[in-house]
Amino acid sequence: MRTKLGLLYGGKSAEHKVSMQTAMAVIKALDLEKFDIHPIYITTEGQWVRGPQLTGPVDNIKALEFNSEEAQSPTALAPKVFNGNDHDSQALDVIFPLLHGPNGEDGTVQGLLELLNLPYVGNGVLASAAGMDKVFMKNIFAQADLAQVAYVSFIRSEWEKEREASYLKVEGQLGYPCFVKPANLGSSVGISKCSNREELENAFIDAFQFDRKIIIEEGVVAREIEVGILGNDEPECSVAGEIIPKTEFYDYKAKYEDGDTALVIPADISEEVYDEMKEMAIRAYKALDCSGLVRADFFLTKEGKLLINEVNTMPGFTPFSMFPLLWKHTGVEYPELIKRLVDLGTERHKEKQ
Ligand code: ADP
Ligand code: MG
Ligand code: MG
User: Is the separation of the CB atoms in 109 and 46 below 8 Å?
Assistant: First the structure.
């Protein structure tokens, strides 16, 4: 029997378009002997619409938007969309959320799927939420004794009350350069590198436009190396890859607009560094109680010190993104990777029952 796979894509976040491209690629890669493909589109306003079953690849994004006028709020539509108690829609076996950022990768959609008792691909509520909040993530890493950069955090109201004290704390504990980031975002949105007080003040104002909580980190000069982790209770690690951005740091533009960033796979690192990275990545995976997949991102300093930067619980997933490329170089091609992720999601669901 074929698996009825629901693909959930689009969404309200800044990564809407990336998600659409991912959906197109996943649809193209799915083996139609094994899967029935059921698309569910989330509009940029966060409304949901379930499309008809697809019988083959689509060649443009528009074809995946369906009739957006029929879109409804997720809470109204979700039971019908997924469980098929609508007259013309079928119940789905497993959902693959191809979503990034808030309202997709942060545990909210995962919570909805839990309530509906549906198996889904990837991380559960806790790991998704903790992975999205950089402050929580780093606190958990600290508890697992993982080496990382020094950081401080503020909520907006604290800063509004004591701006000067906030800046002095950053300067006293971290100094320059430092990186200011909204706590709950990805894709480098709202992130600034600061080299002096004026830049710091502007960076606070900017980051607080995206979130009520921000994190400030000590800036390091380092190579950026990443590994992919795949599995549930017995996670496996891919080969390592390096990102070489052309811009000053790996910002939004470098990620999505100019294809200039080089990905070097496998990364040119020693076996010792790779082994240490693998051990740290799996330790981070377990500390956050991850399942399915994660991309773990590291800084490798000139002195050879490895620092964990972050994990991404739903990493970029087009065939040209780092995570699928890492697995390709490890011997797992894109269609097989998708199949493994669907199986891991189904297994995890069974284990919870
Ligand atoms: P996101 O979740 O948006 O990807 P990151 O924390 O990975 O946020 O930061 C984005 C990029 O900014 C990194 O890939 C790196 O190039 C740069 N960067 C972030 N933090 C630091 C830091 N503490 N020191 C040096 N570079 C950093
Ligand atoms: Mg991230
Ligand atoms: Mg990152």
Answer: no
Report pLDDT digits (tens) over 80-96.
Answer: 666 665 555 678 999 99
- Whether the per-residue pLDDT at 78 is higher than 80: the answer is no
> What is the full DSSP assignment across 23-42?
HHHHHHHS-TTTEEEEEEEE
The residue nearest atom 9 of ligand 1, judged by CA position, is 188
Q: What's the confidence (pLDDT) of residue 88? A: 57
Euclidean distance between CA atoms 254 and 301, whole angstroms: 21
Residue to substitute in 250, 301, 308 for testing ligand 1 pocket (most ligand atoms within 8 angstroms of CB): 250
Which atom of ligand 1 has the smallest separation from the CA of 250?
A: 16
353 CA → ligand 1 middle, Å? 38
pLDDT at position 77 over 80:
no
Closest-lying ligand 1 atom to the alpha carbon of residue 178: 23
* Whether the predicted model's global pTM rises above the 0.80 cut: yes
Write out the E strands in the chain: 3-10, 35-42, 48-50, 94-97, 151-155, 178-182, 192-194, 213-218, 222-231, 236-244, 262-264, 292-301, 306-312
